[in-house]
Amino acid sequence: FAFSHRVLGSLLSAHIIITDTKQPFGDMSIKDYDNELLHLAHDLAVRLLPAFENTKTGIPYPRVNLKKGVPPDSHNETCTAGAGSLLVEFGMLSRLLGDSTFEWVARRAVKALWSLRSNNTGLLGNVVNIQTGHWVGKQSGLGAGSDSFYEYLLKSYILFGEKEDLEMFNAAYQNIQNHLRRGREACNEGEGDPPLYVNVNMYTGQLMNTWIDSLQAFFPGLQVLIGDVEDAICLHAFYYAIWKRYGALPERYNWQLQAPDVPFYPLRPELVESTYLLYQATKNPFYLHVGMDILQSLEKYTKAKCGYATLHHVVEKTKEDRMESFFLSETCKYLYLV
């Protein structure tokens, strides 16, 4: 689903840029353009719709065959991020087409997940059964399986102005601060460790492990968007320090051992996006240096004959023969914007 949304998102973005009467990026209009990209986006979204059928909760299946629909042997389990991160693209498509179907199924999925949060902590888990609504993964955190659920609540509100999205985000953000944040009270002063967001049990709030994953580096950017710039600066600095040490972000980093737990780096965009948003908010040239530093690390360690390669090991700098779709659609985009 994440992959199809990179495709849907790109088609819609390109369509909006081409048809924008203001042309803010210089003249990117196309002569005789007849909404072809919008039609392709619509076609793709229609092929994704079967994922939302035959699910008792309204939470979509994790995989869909674009030709045949949901495979008969499909899993009934999906992650919170995958199921709850559809609103930006589906909402935009619905508004461009004047067809509410897409936004409606995406919003139904978000509300279904939201209704399953713990009564005690207000937290959500990371893997759910789409038929029963039972939490299979009880880990609550800001990394893999959860990250973009929170991101899309706020970005949807910014895009569409629906108050319920902001209300859900504010409640979720408060629960995150209450249960996931560890370290000193104020970010840039006082005693104790700098703030860190850990993985906890969604029902009890108790620590589940001592690692964070690189996907969490999106969170400073989200904090910028909600207005917590001070905290964003601090958390970003924590991830950038890890980047400085290895010239990349390990997929999982053990903050207790201060060493990588899972040592590969698949060219992820999250730290770059947060860098971009912090530069826009502060105009501090430091973030331009961070962007340049990341760019130079990528050039130095990941460049390959036909593109850029996943780093197999951030210490040894060995490569893997793959380049994920988010490298072009997000990592390069945010580096360009910086």
From TrEMBL:
Q: Which Gene Ontology molecular-function terms are recorded?
A: calcium ion binding; mannosyl-oligosaccharide 1,2-alpha-mannosidase activity
Q: What is its main location?
A: endoplasmic reticulum
What EC number(s) does this enzyme carry? 3.2.1.-
Listed A to Z, the keywords are: Endoplasmic reticulum, Glycoprotein, Glycosidase, Hydrolase, Unfolded protein response
Q: Which GO terms describe its cellular component?
A: endoplasmic reticulum quality control compartment; membrane
Location of this chain's protein in the cell: Endoplasmic reticulum
Could you tell me which InterPro entries the record lists for this protein? 6hp_glycosidase-like_sf, EDEM1/2/3, Glyco_hydro_47, Seven-hairpin_glycosidases
Single Gene Ontology BP annotation? carbohydrate metabolic process
Protein family: Belongs to the glycosyl hydrolase 47 family.
Name of the protein in question: alpha-1,2-Mannosidase
Q: Which organism is it from?
A: Horornis vulcanius
**Gene that this polypeptide is encoded by:** Edem1
